[in-house]
Amino acid sequence: MIRLDAITRVFRMGDQEVRALDRISLDIAAGEYVSIMGPSGSGKSTLLNVIGLLDRPDGGHYTLDGIDVTTLSEPEQAQVRRTRIGFVFQSFHLVPRLTAAGNIELPLMLEGMAAAERRERVEATLKAFDLTDRAHHRPAELSGGQRQRVAIARATILHPAVILADEPTGNLDHRIGGEVVALLENLHQRGTTLIVVTHDRELGARARRHIGMRDGAIVADET
Amino acid sequence: MKLADTLSLSLHSLASARTRSLLIVLAMALGVGAVVVLTALGEGARRYVVGQFASLGTNLVIVLPGRAETAGGFPGAALGQTPRDLTLGDAQAVGQLPGVRRYAPLNVGTAELSSGGRLREVTVLGSNAELLPIRHMALAQGRFVGSAAQIVLGDAIAQDFFPDGRAIGQRVRLGDRRFRVAGVLTTQGESMGFNTDEIVIIPVDDAQALFNTETLFRILVEARSRSVIEPVKAAITELLKQRHDGEEDVTVITQDAVLETFDRILRALTLGVAGIAAISLAVAGILVMNVMLVAVAQRTAEIGLLKAIGAPAATIRQLFLAEALWLSLAGAALGFLLGHAGSWMIRLAYPVLPAWPPAWASVAGVATALLTGIVASLLPAARAARLDPVRALSGK
């Protein structure tokens, strides 16, 4: 489903060039559960951003579902992000002035869905994520675990094929983190491809496939 | 994203930055309000002046004896000739011209008015009954047909001499002649430096006898319509030239020429002050741009998130443009109300000044506000749309 072919991403810092991704080639099949681990600056977040179409590689090809997405136009890439990819971030990234329901509704709005249908979908999703009684709370009024649940609900409301999670438990304590992981794994069990970037060995070990990175290259790929 | 959603989401963003939004709306409103109020003032001044001229008579053509334009004076002066006087005969002949609705010969002088032991010096107009409609004067009481020994009193004089209000039919003495009061003018106050409340009107024959003269001070002519003013003017000049043995020794003036000049000057003035007020709108526009740039900087992470969940650059741009649209719309609406309230207060404070804001000024003020707001937000909106999502998500 995801095929990276000699993907290179170079950042320039002053007159220095940093190869965040150095000719990475990688295949991830539909429904896989992959963890990407490595020290800070190893390129794992950059890899996730490239897979999520947030970052354009400087070289190589990336095909998603058989389509070379590196050649897509900006609106086409946005369309792919909206419908095929769900992001979960360490810092949740909820819009502070919107309620939980408002945040979850955002992707549906961007998709141009009618208000009545949106309301139905949001209600069902809130229920599925056990957030119904928190629907009208703003992020500031929610606990960390609830915020991440809202973020995951938002990422999955359009049923993406891939969920990209960047340190999803990084800002949560152990118990709450465990709940969030369970939630993500539950989505994976229902067929969603799950890619998790983490420092946390315990979390990384839960995945079926472990990719290790260092200095912009893949140094381990074990199942 | 649907337009309605774009509008509601942007309104939501503005509502969360209430103070900032209100301040911009206020700045916009003051700009629009200033345009409306200042043009109302200019327009009020224009209407006031035009009204003053109109009170002198509409489609008015005035005939004066003598040439008033050449520096060398009357052309015949060197030959020892003097300009011929205007006579009643001239006036009657002018009255027969096609295009003339009515005419009034005019003599002016002063004389002592006395009645019941009271005595006072008054300005005397000698004319016919047509003087009243030509000069837009009306009688509060009585009737003036211009028959001999009739006199019409100005409002102030009538009150002075007959405080009980029963002036009609009373006998008065003007100079060495007796008159019977036929009418009292409605009060008009001063117009163009001439107070109709302080005059008396008598038939022109009586005036000529009173002042012992054969000549006229003026002939007032009302043309049938605005479009025939120029032909009438030319016909009068030609007619009087014939009657005066080929000598062009009268001056014919129309108030239209004067009025048009005033009209033009005041319109230009109104446009000028509107332009000055519009500068404040430009300032408001810069304010909008500044505040929107701050908003983009503050909401960088949010913009990154929107991109991550699939908002294309165009949607981000539209969201910020919609915010500017709301701000300018609210500012324009509030400014419109402020402007009209301000104009109303001016009319209240200065009732003589018809300070009604012209429709074009309201439309232009509102349109300029909208346009300024949108134009000022183009740059911030483009900047937001261009943000790199990865950097934006990290708040950089």
Characterise the protein shown here:
The complex is a heterodimer of chains A (223) and B (396). Chain A has 223 residues and is an alpha/beta fold. Chain A has a single domain (2-222), classed as Rossmann fold, CATH 3.40.50. Helix content of chain A is 35%, strand content 29%. Chain A contains seven helices and ten strands. In chain A, the strands form two sheets. Chain A has a six-stranded mixed β-sheet with strand order 6-7-8-3-9-10, sandwiched between helices. Chain A is globular and about 50 Å long. Chain A starts with a strand and ends with a strand. Chain B has two domains: 3-53 and 260-393, no CATH class; 84-248, no CATH class. In chain B, the strands form two sheets. Chain B has a six-stranded mixed barrel with strand order 2-3-10-5-7-6. In chain B, strands 8-9 form a two-stranded antiparallel ribbon. In chain B, helix 1 (3-16) packs across helix 10, helix 2 (18-55) packs across helix 10 (313-349) and helix 10 runs antiparallel to helix 11. Chain B has twelve helices and twelve strands. In chain B, a hairpin with a 2-residue loop joins strand 2 and strand 3. The radius of gyration of chain B is 34 Å and the shape is elongated. With 396 residues, chain B is of the alpha+beta class. At the A-B interface, helix 2 and helix 3 of A face helix 1, helix 9, helix 10 and helix 12 of B.
Q: Which secondary structure elements does this structure contain, and how are they paired or packed?
A:
The complex is a heterodimer of chains A (223) and B (396).
Chain A: E1 2-13, E2 16-28, E3 33-37, H1 44-51, E4 59-64, E5 67-68, H2 74-84, E6 85-88, H3 100-111, H4 115-128, H5 144-156, E7 162-166, H6 174-189, E8 193-198, H7 201-205, E9 209-214, E10 217-222
Parallel strand pairs in A: 3-8, 3-9, 6-7, 7-8
Antiparallel strand pairs in A: 1-2, 1-4, 4-5, 9-10
Helix pairs in contact in A: 3-4, 3-5, 5-6
Chain B: H1 3-16, H2 18-55, E1 60-65, H3 88-95, E2 100-115, E3 118-127, H4 131-134, E4 139-142, E5 150-153, H5 155-161, E6 171-174, E7 177-185, E8 190-191, E9 194-195, E10 199-203, H6 204-211, E11 218-223, H7 229-243, E12 250-254, H8 255-298, H9 300-308, H10 313-349, H11 359-386, H12 389-393
Parallel strand pairs in B: 3-10, 5-7
Antiparallel strand pairs in B: 1-11, 1-12, 2-3, 2-6, 2-11, 4-7, 5-10, 6-7, 8-9
Helix pairs in contact in B: 1-10, 2-8, 2-10, 2-11, 8-11, 10-11
